[in-house]
Amino acid sequence: MRIRDENKMTTIQEKALEMIVNEGFDGLSMQKLARAAGVSPATIYIYFKDRDDLIIQLYLQQRDLFFNAIIEGLNEDMDFATALKVQWKNRARFAIENPQTTHFLEHITYTPLYNETFKTPGPRFLTVMKSIAHKAIENKELAEMPFEMYWSLVFAPLYNLVRMHKLGKNMAGEPFVLTDEMLESTLKLVLKAIKP
């Protein structure tokens, strides 16, 4: 049995992420990945059962990087407005600094493999987020609503601003840069909209 080499595994994952972002999921073959990573196809199977397992493991790894970045500096005792401001800044920073990961995480949600990821236990992220939301409802800082509505009202505005920032232009095609002032002004409006 061959010994696992963490450096090789990291290289395989990095090249897989790069290939998926640049060529789509259909562009990822084990032969092409092996060439790009400088390993034999057999080496990939030391770390992953098959192509789907590779994609799922890559998703879980990148998801956890994203979730850990979101809760950085977040304290469950913060008031809701402060907690949301920390999250918005963390989410925006991560999306801007990690475009490949953001692209990959977004696009895997439209594949059947996304459902496979729900079989894994959720990270600490879910516990922290639920605690903050429940406390905000109790303190009348947040109206009670279905999760889908909450996510759409609270985070969709942020991700639209980040998307325009990454494109470098707004919906009218004019130059656009997301500033801290714009982020905070938008957040204030969101907070007003979700109060009971």
TrEMBL record:
<dbReference type="GO" id="GO:0003677">
    <property type="term" value="F:DNA binding"/>
</dbReference>
<dbReference type="InterPro" id="IPR009057">
    <property type="entry name" value="Homeodomain-like_sf"/>
</dbReference>
<feature type="domain" description="HTH tetR-type">
    <location>
        <begin position="6"/>
        <end position="66"/>
    </location>
</feature>
<keyword id="KW-0238">DNA-binding</keyword>
<dbReference type="InterPro" id="IPR001647">
    <property type="entry name" value="HTH_TetR"/>
</dbReference>
<dbReference type="InterPro" id="IPR050624">
    <property type="entry name" value="HTH-type_Tx_Regulator"/>
</dbReference>
<feature type="DNA-binding region" description="H-T-H motif">
    <location>
        <begin position="29"/>
        <end position="48"/>
    </location>
</feature>
<protein>
    <submittedName>
        <fullName>TetR/AcrR family transcriptional regulator</fullName>
    </submittedName>
</protein>
<dbReference type="Pfam" id="PF00440">
    <property type="entry name" value="TetR_N"/>
</dbReference>
